[in-house]
Write a structure and sequence with these properties.
Helix 1 packs antiparallel against helix 2, helix 6 packs antiparallel against helix 11 and helix 20 runs antiparallel to helix 23. Helix content is about 75%, strand content about 0%. The protein has 24 helices and no strands. It is globular, with a radius of gyration of 22 Å.
């Protein structure tokens, strides 16, 4: 049995046994090295350290800490109040508010489940009080949360850029237009579903007036400036994504603690714990996948995969559709970052050989992984929203189907029109 076969079979067996992703990768790698006798065992600790010693990874826990601080610091509430003034009285107004607030909060946290938790905790109970069904409320929050991994800053984009040795800023820039297209699609879906089911807006919300809106903007000015401060520091060249994540923490402490006076010491402690938990999980998977990836590279797995796929078709769009189909299936059983970390190093050589732009491919990977957040049995967003709405995951899974259809149409749009992803970064000079 070849070392590559040992590696793949042992990894699949570990997955089926329910082992954590990082343990599955480590055990599969160790078995391959011992039974295959292809590389010295010293590669284990060297690879694990190489996977952990990646500076841009620092941005992930910092953005998570910043997002948590902003939730406790009343910044999320202020953003929701302003958005609700614009659309709160329309059909499905609170559902649309949820999705728009998730879009806004996505420019802060970079996490899908984190976005669902921050916004859903406030707006799901509000929807229930206004006569919306639990199914609709949970589905709107779940689908809105997927935007959290597409609009920058995005944790999966950071990981992809690190794995492919690309510019993180280029990937962030590429996510803007697709992110707003997905947000618009989700808003339209929420409106159509609400119109069919007769879910009206929030009657307690006063009619929109420009005077009241401008007063709300002035009252919530510092909260609304948050995405501009974070993203502006990156695109102006004053800060790298890692430095911008620290700026986000500083801004959250300033606004939440000194201006809104809502932050307490226990909130800061909880935010640091949350960041450490996320960072620990990511680093374990990245370190283990680095080891497994070196074995696959030594065994020429990317070249073999390319040969196999190109034997079916060398049409770039057909190949992308095949990859999307595989990701749809894997997303039901594997966590988003795990899928990205394992597949990106294997698929990138083939993608480059076919002449597919790596930035375009990165957006396809991230958007397709949004589907994974909504598909059971591992759809993380479903579990978060179902817990908040006190509803079974099965019920939420059914109500999410219209949003999954919208997301699939968006993926096909991005696949066949790559300029949607690549125009902005190349125009601004980040993709060169």
């Amino acid at each position: 049995m070849s070392p590559l076969t040992i590696a793949l079979i042992s990894m699949v067996v570990m997955f089926l046994l329910g082992m954590p992703i990082f343990m599955s990768l480590c055990i599969a790698s160790a078995l391959t090295l011992m039974l295959g006798d292809i590389l010295p065992l010293s590669i284990i600790h060297n690879s694990l350290f190489d996977g952990l010693n990646i500076f841009p990874l620092l941005a992930i826990p910092c953005f998570v800490v910043a997002g948590t601080l902003m939730e406790y610091g009343n910044i999320t509430n202020q953003i929701i109040d302003v958005v609700k003034m614009l659309v709160g009285r329309t059909y499905g107004g609170l559902g649309i508010t949820t999705i728009l607030a998730c879009t806004f909060f996505a420019a802060i946290s970079g996490s899908g489940p984190g976005t669902v938790a921050a916004v859903g905790t406030i707006l799901i109970p509000a929807m229930l009080r206004n006569g919306y069904s639990r199914d609709y409320a949970a589905a709107a929050a779940s689908s809105g949360g997927t935007i959290g991994i597409l609009i920058p800053p995005s944790n999966p984009m950071i990981i992809y850029a690190i794995l492919g040795n690309f510019s993180v800023t280029a990937m962030f820039t590429a996510g803007f237009i697709p992110g707003f297209i997905v947000a618009f699609g989700m808003v339209l879906t929420a409106y159509i579903v609400a119109r069919r089911k007769g879910f009206k807006g929030d009657d307690s919300q006063p009619p929109f007036t420009m005077k009241a809106f401008l007063q709300a903007i002035r009252r919530c000015f510092f909260a609304l400036m948050t995405p501009i401060i974070i993203l502006g520091s990156i695109y102006s060249g004053y800060a790298t994504p890692v430095e911008a994540s620290v700026v986000a923490i500083g801004w959250a402490l300033l606004v939440g603690g000194l201006i809104n006076r809502s932050l307490r010491w226990e909130h800061i402690y909880k935010a640091l714990i949350e960041g450490a938990m996320v960072c620990g999980g990511v680093l374990l998977i990245v370190g283990a996948s680095t080891l497994f990836g070196k074995i696959l590279t030594f065994e020429e797995a990317p070249q073999r995969l390319a040969h196999l796929v190109l034997g079916i078709s060398d049409n770039p769009q057909i190949v992308l559709l095949m990859i999307i189909a595989v990701l749809y299936v894997l997303g039901m059983f594997m966590e988003t970052l795990s899928t990205l970390i394992i597949l990106a190093p294997v698929l990138l050589p083939m993608i480059l050989k076919l002449g597919i732009d790596p930035i375009h491919f990165g957006i396809i990977l991230v958007v397709t992984n949004e589907v994974a957040l909504l598909t059971p049995p591992l759809g993380v967003n479903l579990f978060v929203s179902s817990r908040i709405a006190n509803l079974s995951v099965e019920r939420v899974s059914v109500s999410i189907l219209p949003y999954l259809l919208t997301l699939t149409l968006c993926i096909l749009l991005f696949t066949f029109f790559p300029a949607i992803s690549t125009w902005l970064p190349y125009t601004l000079g980040y993709g060169k």
